[in-house]
Amino acid sequence: MTVIPLALATCFPLVVSTPSLWIIIDDCSTDNTQEVVKSYNDKRIIYYRHKKNKGYLAARNTGWNLAKGKYNCQLGDDDELLPKALEIVVNTFNKLSAQGVKFLWFDIINAELETLSGSGLGKEGYITYKDILSGKVRGDFWQIVDLDLLSHYRFDEGWYGAPVGDGILWLRLLRKSKGYYVPKALYKAYREHGNERECRKRLNLTKHLAGLHRYEKTFLEENGEELIHILDEVFASKTVDEWDRLCREYHLIYSRIKTVEEAIDDPQALANDFFVDLPHPAGSMKVLASPVKFHQNPASVGAPAPELGQHTEEILLDLGYSGEDIARLAGNVQIKQGRVKPP
Fold it and tell me: 250: part of which helix (H) or strand (E)?
């Protein structure tokens, strides 16, 4: 078990000026994690082992449940904190305490690519709920939260396998308080797991898909209304023709909502025979074709709509009127207004 010593080796030099408590959550591993942790014999380390494997989000929740003190941050078992990381975090909180900041975001370095893992936050400043919901912020950042703000909030462990399983929690916190971004990399993450680092277990596909569905359902229930407002603002910023061009340019699957006039002349609708020409005394007109198509017995559109008064005589005869009665009533206003009663 090589990753725990590597992670702790980056942490202990940071506690000289920043007293800390380190909680290690063992998600029912099958290696020698427990022996490695005990070898440190350090009171600053709390070791907790799950009786069964519960997954990444459950391990993070357990860490929060055991956390004490003022601020909390989390470190993956195969990742590293950079020099003075905790000192910078505490100093930043102290500097911004008067503004009520309880949620900090710092950059993460992708160790293999040597690039930042997140984007969208160009300069130091506040992060809002809308910034995250609108998709302005992308990728991974290192979050440190005041435990007073975190309160009872936890990850839904049913979000198993969701690629952004922590996103809903950050949105919940940002509804309560603004976050603050500092453009400084304090965390190094290893995305490719080789022989010297711990490889994550393969996802159970059924459980993974169920987790994604549950995550999406929760996301829309909690944020759908606000998201619609954001999308309305975005769509209103361009004309229909501009959006049509952009969607084609990026090869998006979309459909333009057309007016009745546009739909009648739509090339795809015409190619699929959605409309047919129907003869009418007033002139040929386009009408909807049958929605059901049969190969051997093609459906066809029946007679055109009747003209005004076309069936008046037929209906009056059915009602018991004679030909003489109908002739007498032909110019009567009662026929025109539909007030004729059966004889």
Answer: none
Longest dimension (CA), the chain: 115
> Are the beta carbons of 71 and 93 closer than 8 angstroms?
yes
Bridge-based pairing of strands 45-49 and 22-26 is parallel
Residues of the chain with CATH 3.90.550.10: 3-222
Could you tell me the pTM of the whole model? Answer: 0.71
List pLDDT tens digits, range 283-292: 788 888 888 8
- β-bridge pairing 141-146 and 103-110: antiparallel
Measure CA of the first residue to CA of the last residue in the chain; give whole Å.
101
CA distance 43 to 123: 39
CATH assignment of 3-222? Answer: 3.90.550.10
Give the ranges where the chain is alpha helix by DSSP (H). Answer: 3-11, 33-38, 56-66, 85-96, 129-133, 147-150, 167-176, 205-236, 240-249, 260-264, 267-271, 312-318, 323-329, 333-336
Tens of pLDDT, residues 325-338: 888 877 665 555 45
Range scoring the smallest mean pLDDT among 31-35, 87-91, 95-99, 294-298: 294-298
